[in-house]
């Protein structure tokens, strides 16, 4: 699903990395850290934007890092990427100094994000940039009234998801500007990055809808009402007359909050 998310948001991602390059003007970007690199969405976007840079891609998952390394090899970029398995909750790894740190949907997973932000600050060269990206809610795909089932099914799913995320990920929705400032950063820019796609959707966006709603169905299997479970099953069953890919009202709406901060010189 990470790769599908990257494809759907490719245009917005390119705009964001262009803005980072503008803010980095006068400070060469050669050493980049991608924290929580996953399958490499941020890594590859940054390599495209900064052709002189190499990226240390940090993740806790060997599987994700193997996927990233395989993708890098296929695209002829293996010599510019250093996969590094590390759990930042345990200790900051030996990365060397960096000109740019990218943390997309990773900071809220940290047990002690304030300590990690201080480690990032110490790792950045003076004048270096940190970009923190957080998607605080899952994307939305459906209208309130589907024409069957009880209206508001997707909204009720999001209420259940938010409740579970608040319990297991207490730093979701944190006051990141205050945390960044406390760690010694100066915030250069705050912005929202919005993806808004309307029907007819490209095939990638339809697959993204199936993947995301399927994941929601799995996560909430024991929490959904029987009626909402039945509605969601009908949307996900590709041979159903109500299947997602048959709907003219299918959409993709998602918003990410972005903070770009610098270590003062």
Let me know the number of strands: 7
**Would you list the SSEs in sequence order as H and E?**
HHEHEHEEHEHHEHHE
**CATH homologous superfamily title of the largest domain:** Vaccinia Virus protein VP39
Trace the largest sheet across and list its strands.
3-2-1-4-5-7-6
What does this structure look like?
This protein has helices at 2-8, 10-23, 41-49, 62-74, 113-123, 153-168, 176-182, 203-219, 226-236, and strands spanning 31-35, 54-59, 81-85, 98-104, 124-134, 186-197, 252-262. With 265 residues, it is an alpha/beta fold. The model has no long low-confidence stretch (mean pLDDT 95). The protein contains 9 helices and 7 strands, in the order ααβαβαββαβααβααβ. The protein folds into 2 domains: 1-136 and 173-196 and 253-265, Rossmann fold; 138-169 and 200-248, no CATH class. Helix 4 (62-74) links the parallel strand 2 (54-59) and strand 3 (81-85).
At a glance:
This protein has helices at residues 2-8, 10-23, 41-49, 62-74, 113-123, 153-168, 176-182, 203-219, 226-236; strands at residues 31-35, 54-59, 81-85, 98-104, 124-134, 186-197, 252-262.
Topology of helices and strands:
Elements: H1 2-8, H2 10-23, E1 31-35, H3 41-49, E2 54-59, H4 62-74, E3 81-85, E4 98-104, H5 113-123, E5 124-134, H6 153-168, H7 176-182, E6 186-197, H8 203-219, H9 226-236, E7 252-262
Parallel strand pairs: 1-2, 1-4, 2-3, 4-5
Antiparallel strand pairs: 5-7, 6-7
